TrEMBL record:
Regions crossing the membrane: none
GO biological process, one term: phosphatidic acid biosynthetic process
Enzyme class label: transferase
Organism encoding this protein: Virgibacillus massiliensis
Pfam families documented for this protein: Acyltransferase (PF01553)
Similarity comment: family membership: Belongs to the 1-acyl-sn-glycerol-3-phosphate acyltransferase family.
Domain (Phospholipid/glycerol acyltransferase): residue spans on this chain: 33-144
Record remark on domains: The HXXXXD motif is essential for acyltransferase activity and may constitute the binding site for the phosphate moiety of the glycerol-3-phosphate.
Lipid metabolism as UniProt keyword: yes
Reactions accelerated catalytically: a 1-acyl-sn-glycero-3-phosphate + an acyl-CoA = a 1,2-diacyl-sn-glycero-3-phosphate + CoA
EC annotation from Swiss-Prot or TrEMBL: 2.3.1.51
Keywords tagged on the record: Acyltransferase, Lipid biosynthesis, Lipid metabolism, Phospholipid biosynthesis, Phospholipid metabolism, Transferase
Protein name: 1-acyl-sn-glycerol-3-phosphate acyltransferase
GO CC list: membrane
The encoding gene: plsC_2
Length: 198
C-alpha cells in the first residue's frame, strides 16, 4: 500500500512541477536513522516521502489524525504512527525506537507546528535519535505548502544535509544538547542554501 500510494503521489505532484532534490546521497547510509525536516505545510510531508523513494519513511503524526476511521486507515497504510504532542511520555519514543532497531527510517518534523518562520525546535528528533543511538539526517524543503500553492506552480525543492551523529565522548545529556544545537544550525543552513539555489 505504501509504494502504491507513494508512486501515485509522485505522478500527481509532478503534474504541478517536478521537484529539485539536492544531496540525496547524504541519506544513503546503512541502518535506521531519523529524518528531521522543516515543516511549513502538508505538501512538504508528501514531497519528502516521494523524494526518499524507494526507501520508506515511518512518520510521527499527531494523534488527532487517527480519530477518524478513514484517516486512521490511511495514516496506518502510509506507515504513520500516532504521538500525543500535549502529553508526551516514555511511550512516545517506544514505537520509533523499535522501528529504528529494525533499521527503518523515522520521519519527524522537529518544529512541530507548521510555520514559515524560524521557531525553536522541539526535542523529539534528538531524544529519539539519542536513545536509539542513530544519526539524524537534516532536511530542508522549499515550495508549495498547500493545495492552492500547487496551482501556482511554485517550484518545490528539497535538500539533504550530512548525517549528525551523537557524540560518544560526552555525557548523554551534554551530547544531546550538542546534537540539538547542530541540528538547529544545519536546518537553518540548508534553508539558506535552498534560497541560494532557487
Amino acid at each position: 500500500m505504501y509504494y502504491l500510494a507513494a508512486y501515485l503521489l509522485k505522478i500527481i505532484l509532478s503534474l504541478f512541477g517536478r521537484i529539485n532534490v539536492y544531496q540525496k546521497e547524504n541519506a544513503a547510509i546503512p541502518g535506521g536513522f531519523v529524518i528531521a525536516c522543516t515543516h511549513t505545510g502538508w505538501v512538504d510531508i508528501l514531497w519528502l516521502g516521494v523524494s526518499m523513494l524507494p526507501k520508506k519513511i515511518h512518520y510521527m503524526a499527531k494523534k488527532e489524525l487517527f480519530q477518524s476511521k478513514l484517516l486512521k486507515w490511511l495514516m496506518e497504510r502510509l506507515n504513520a504512527f500516532p504521538v500525543d504532542r500535549e502529553n508526551p511520555g516514555p511511550s512516545t519514543i517506544k514505537v520509533p525506537r523499535r522501528l529504528l532497531a529494525e533499521q527503518k527510517v523515522v520521519g519527524i518534523f522537529p518544529s512541530g507546528t507548521r510555520t514559515s518562520e524560524e521557531v525553536p525546535l522541539k526535542r523529539g528528533a534528538v531524544t529519539i535519535a539519542g536513545h536509539a543511538k542513530v544519526p539524524i539526517v537534516p532536511v530542508a524543503y522549499k515550495g508549495p505548502n498547500n493545495f492552492t500553492d500547487l496551482f501556482k506552480r511554485i517550484k518545490p525543492s528539497i535538500i539533504y544535509g550530512k548525517p549528525i551523529y551523537i557524540s560518544e565522548h560526552l555525557p548523554r545529556k551534554q551530547a544531546m544538547e550538542e546534537m540539538m544545537v547542530q541540528l538547529n544550525q544545519e536546518l537553518s543552513n540548508l534553508q539558506n542554501r535552498l534560497d541560494e539555489l532557487n
